[in-house]
Amino acid sequence: MGYFNYEKLRQTNASKKSWWNLAKTLFRRSRSSKISKLRDQNNQKWSEDKMKAHVFNQHFAAICTMTTADYDKDISPDKLPLSTPTLDLFTVTTREVEKCLKMINASKATSEGISSKILKEAGPVIAEDLKHICNYSLSSGDFPDKWKLGLIHPLFKDGDTTLPTNYRPITLLPAMSKILEG
């Protein structure tokens, strides 16, 4: 255990919430799946994480309401029905980026990449650079590919935990993408 964590644990005036948050960080559980078994559409039960991911993928793709007519990634940008391909009329200021960074909820889950907590804590140092990235994205019409990737997480609703129909998908987006959205 590092000196920083040891000192935080020794603080007697720390709130219960901050103490438990620190304890969870120090003694983080394994990231293995909490879903013990999952049944596929043929009623076969799977316990391997890779197969459970495949079952969820099949189920979530089957219930998706977006069709290829709604989204076709092969459409060239010049055929999109936009009045302008860029948002170069908009510019982002360092102050606006700092405000977005301060408003980030560091306790919310995000996908892989720079965590919300690090973005929030490093805000004053990185705001100027993030401003340039945001302004480039707006003026060029390019949204960074890494910021478009999300992790689909199955969230249990109710009923039998082995049925994929009892889960709904939630998408965890990169924390960085939230800065440009803000």
UniProtKB/TrEMBL annotation:
Top-level taxon of origin: Eukaryota
Protein's name according to its UniProt entry: Reverse transcriptase
Source organism (scientific name): Didymodactylos carnosus
